[in-house]
Amino acid sequence: MDDKKENNSTKVKKERIKKEGLVLINTGNGKGKTTAALGCALRAAGHKKKVLILQFIKGAMNTGELKSLEYLEQFIEIKQLGEGFIKYKDGKPFITDDDRRNARMTFDYSSKRIENSDFGLIILDEIINLLNFNLISIGEIKELINKRPKGSCIILTGSNAPQELIDIADTVTEMKEIKHAFQQGITAKKGIEY
User: Fold this and answer.
1) How open is the CA angle 78-157-67, to the nearest 5 degrees?
2) pLDDT value at residue 2
3) What's the rounded Cα separation, in Å, for the pair 144 and 152?
4) Which is it for strands 153-156 and 121-124: parallel, antiparallel or unpaired?
5) What global pTM score does this model have?
6) d(CA 112, CA 147)
7) How far is CA 183 from CA 7, 23, 37, 65, in A?
8) pLDDT surpasses 60 at 123
9) Sequence-separated contacts (24+) of 22-27 with Cβ below 8 Å
10) What string of H, E and C letters represents the secondary structure of 19-38?
11) Domains in the chain, ordered, with CATH?
């Protein structure tokens, strides 16, 4: 019976289901539920998908998300620095010398770009994963945080933030996966996962 389950599991991994519409829920008592949804809206718009955002309970608040839709382009700079996801071999990360060089190059670029800048918000997306893969040190991340312009906010993302980073943060939200379509063999969806 176990062999049969294993074969079915392997089969699901090889044959992904292409499902048209997904249902996602951002829940929990932590900050970031609306923010994460707005991130998906940006992602979907990047793929030229029409997006409808209906906000309940908030009333007629003059929120930043409403204003930003009017003039987003002139305020947000986004730059992809990596060369792709870290590969895995036998279920473990397989870090190459190219991965190490690329991580160093992108981290150094980020450091120079942040220092003496005038950004009000800096987002270091997936930087915690560089730390998790031992591609940078926690000391380097702390130094980068301290290099930000005076008064600017900084957001670090990535799985499994270490306690040392949590301790210096002002707000920490753990978004916990309860269920994911990928576990059911459904392929990654344009505008949702990427």
Assistant:
1) 50
2) 53
3) 13
4) parallel
5) 0.76
6) 9
7) 15, 14, 21, 32
8) yes
9) 22/181, 22/186, 22/189, 22/192, 24/192, 26/175, 27/178
10) CCCCCCCCCCCCCCHHHHHH
11) 1-76+178-194 (no CATH), 78-175 (3.40.50.300)
